[in-house]
Amino acid sequence: MRPKIYIFGDSITEESFGDGGWGASLAHHFSRTVDVVLRGYSGYNTRWALKVLDKAFPAADGGDAPLAITVFFGANDACLPDRCSAFQHVPLHEYRQNLHSIISIFKKQWPKTQILLISPPPIDEDARLKFPYVENTMGMAERTNEAAGAYAKACVSVAAECGIPAIDLWTKMQHYPGWKNACLSDGLHLAHTGNKIVFEEVIMKLREVGLSLESLPVDLPLIGDIDPSNPLKSFEN
Amino acid sequence: MRPKIYIFGDSITEESFGDGGWGASLAHHFSRTVDVVLRGYSGYNTRWALKVLDKAFPAADGGDAPLAITVFFGANDACLPDRCSAFQHVPLHEYRQNLHSIISIFKKQWPKTQILLISPPPIDEDARLKFPYVENTMGMAERTNEAAGAYAKACVSVAAECGIPAIDLWTKMQHYPGWKNACLSDGLHLAHTGNKIVFEEVIMKLREVGLSLESLPVDLPLIGDIDPSNPLKSFEN
After folding, report:
1. Cα separation of A27 and A131, whole Å?
2. Which pLDDT tens digits describe chain A residue by residue (237 residues)?
3. Cα B234 to the chain's mean position, in Å?
4. Least buried of A237, B32, B68, B203, by fewest C-beta within 10 Å?
5. In A, which residues are within 8 Å of B32 by CB distance?
6. What number of other Cβ atoms are within 10 A of residue A91's Cβ?
7. Cβ atoms of A102 and A49 closer than 8 Å
């Protein structure tokens, strides 16, 4: 039975099977080895994620433990508490605590599963004013890059405290020249290069914990391994 | 627990999570309702598909029956028996019989699962000579459009005999102006428009058997349904 990798997060995960999306790229990369399973919930913060964890990941799922889970929250937690998306805001100390809780629930359910935290991306505040998700009469962006940075830093430090890997997307993306347009489509969600960065970082971190195309078994014969003079031999036993 | 749709087939299925691929589009479309699970095996014909069916779809998978399975074979069965890819060829009568066997195995395992046959696409023979998969010293394409058409016709008639839906991709694609370049990338595999056609046809056929975004339940609250003045209310019970 083919093993699974879950990708768990907010809209940046939910939309990751769109054109050029990092989730689809991951599924394509592991097309003969792993089922990449989408658990993305647009608008969710870590507080709501905790509320749905038992439904999104039923303990009685019957299957084996997944190989890995990416946990990619913070972009909504980091909405400012006094701006138009305040209902999604989660205070920084609670965000930290919620990530700890999510990790410990997963670790209890599946002790051998690799958990990979992904920080929120940087924010382009001008673009956030140009592409509002809800009515914004204040003339100020509902998210700032500074706030996203604080949540990203917290995410990375929670990972370190738990001894698990993290991707500091906030820092990584800002190293990319012209990141606001190359990496982001509306100041928050991912454009082509942003998706490529997430995909490549996830692949690299998975490789570092032993999960790669070289190490994972292909469950059924590859066409290149089938003997043209006796194809059915590959399908014996 | 979120229901599944399996997509089962050859390389045209295996590669369907690449950029703009029909499998990724399907997963994106159903991102909050269905897990789209990839079971694509490059180079496989129906004879080999039958050999691996019990491993690709373990009866003891623990999960519920999938909502649907797409069965998309024939492009390799239709390789000509006297050309360079002869080892993949399956005679037309056996192709028919193998499709019947695959359908009856699925129907026995999961009586309520919707099975959807997809015919092989048309072939652009010039492109097949330009982009060989194996050494081709004969100067003749290993697949012809005429042969693909015969297998497509057989696929559609098997579906009718079994009372299940089918997509006649061979006919459908040839109605598209400039189909050789618009629909195909190398005379066989799908280019952007080809992927779009498969995605739209699959969505339409699923809708006809009652599987659509309107009829399938979303398993967790959508952001648009969450009350900003009391978000946690949506997560009670």
Report:
1. 30
2. 899 999 999 999 999 999 999 999 999 999 999 999 999 999 999 999 999 999 999 875 556 899 999 999 999 999 999 999 999 999 999 999 999 999 999 999 999 999 999 999 999 999 999 999 999 898 999 999 999 999 999 999 999 999 999 999 999 999 999 999 999 999 999 999 999 999 999 999 999 999 999 999 999 999 999 999 999 999 997
3. 37
4. A237
5. 14, 41
6. 11
7. yes
Superfamily, domain B4-235: SGNH hydrolase (3.40.50.1110)
Query: How far is residue A124's CA from residue A132's CA, in Å, rounded to a whole number?
Result: 12
Other beta carbons less than 10 A from residue B59's beta carbon: 10
The catalytic position among A10, A11, A25, A168 is: A11
Report yes or no for ipTM above 0.90: yes
Q: Inter-chain contact B27–A27, Cβ cutoff 8 Å?
A: yes
* Contact (CB<8Å) B228/A87: yes
Is the Cβ pair A27, B31 closer than 8 Å? no
Cβ pair A84, A135 in contact under 8 A: yes
Nearest to A18 among B28, B42, B47 (CB): B28
